Amino acid sequence: MSGQTPIPTLEERIREVLRLLETRDSLSVSELAKEFRVSEVTVRSDLSTLAQQGLVARVRGGVRALQRGQSEIAFDLRLRIEAGRKQAIAKAAAALVEEGEAIALDSSTTAYYLALELRAKSDLVVVTNGLLIAAALADAPGISVLVTGGILRLSAMSLAGDIGADVLRTTGINKGFLGARGLSLERGLMDLNPDEVRMKQAMAGACEQVIGIIDGTKWHRSALLSFVAADDVHGIVTDTTAPEAEVEAWRARGVSVTVAEPAAIPAAPVRSHELRRGPHHGSAR
């Protein structure tokens, strides 16, 4: 029908289901059929595909997130969600990094895109608990990479735990760029997994400045645990979909908020096999 939004493709529907389950315990077949304007048969097929991949659990009449309602989508799949926004945020955040600095990157997918942007810089020390982030910078000639220790969390390709936190207590870092599942002036930056939250808290404590790298979808969300209080946030880098009133409220609190404009045609998201290989040698990204 002329003027009507096109019905989302299978890939778009799957991405939206995974995105919704980052903050919802469950979704029903009927509500998804209405949302996507497809039949319930089609939705059941979509959900079966996700369940077969081990990303969700089927329940009567719908689907629920894994891990007691807090499913963590595999890193390479999460990397493709809101890729254009994350790439724009990464480019704007990279402009805040000065040569000669020591910076911290957490294991978030936005931090991975930021790592790609940093490859062209020189005389940097990057501290990270993200294994794929470390791999993305491993052959960058001007960057020294310090990987925290800890227990491997396969779903996030990260290291977490007290060993890594101990390393950070003795490390001085100029700026920390941290992703979040949600943010608010009341609770600051928030995330779900307790191990990741402890690591983010340790990173923030070692940094002179804490900068949230947060796409517009996170501004309407809450999450289980706070890891940086609002008063301890020095800056936020987001995109143009962030709610203007909330952006201004943070600025009124003295927080520098950079709003990045996503490209009209974003770069192709990195695929899982490319993550396993790491970036191509000589790539500008």
Supply the key terms.
single chain; Arc Repressor Mutant, subunit A; globular; 3-stranded antiparallel β-sheet; 12 helices; 2 domains; 7-stranded parallel β-sheet; alpha/beta; 37% helix; disordered C terminus; Rossmann fold; 285 residues
In a few lines, what is going on in this structure?
The chain has two domains: 10-70, Arc Repressor Mutant, subunit A; 77-277, Rossmann fold, CATH 3.40.50.1360. 37% of the residues lie in helices and 22% in strands.
Can you describe what's shown?
The chain has 285 residues and is of the alpha/beta class. It has 2 domains: 10-70, Winged helix-like DNA-binding domain superfamily/Winged helix DNA-binding domain (Arc Repressor Mutant, subunit A), CATH 1.10.10.10; 77-277, Rossmann fold (3-Layer(aba) Sandwich). It is built from 12 helices and 15 strands. The protein has helices spanning 10-20, 29-36, 40-52, 66-69, 75-78, 83-94, 109-118, 131-137, 162-169, 194-206, 244-252, 272-277, and strands at residues 26-28, 57-59, 62-64, 102-105, 124-128, 143-147, 151-153, 158-160, 173-178, 182-184, 188-191, 207-213, 225-228, 235-239, 256-260. The strands form 4 sheets. A 7-stranded parallel β-sheet has the order 6-5-4-9-12-14-15, with helices on both faces. It has a 3-stranded antiparallel β-sheet with strand order 1-3-2. Strands 10-11-13 form a 3-stranded antiparallel β-sheet, with helices on one face. Strand 7 and strand 8 form a beta hairpin. Helix 6 (83-94) packs across helix 7 (109-118). It is globular. Residues 275-285 have low confidence and may be disordered.
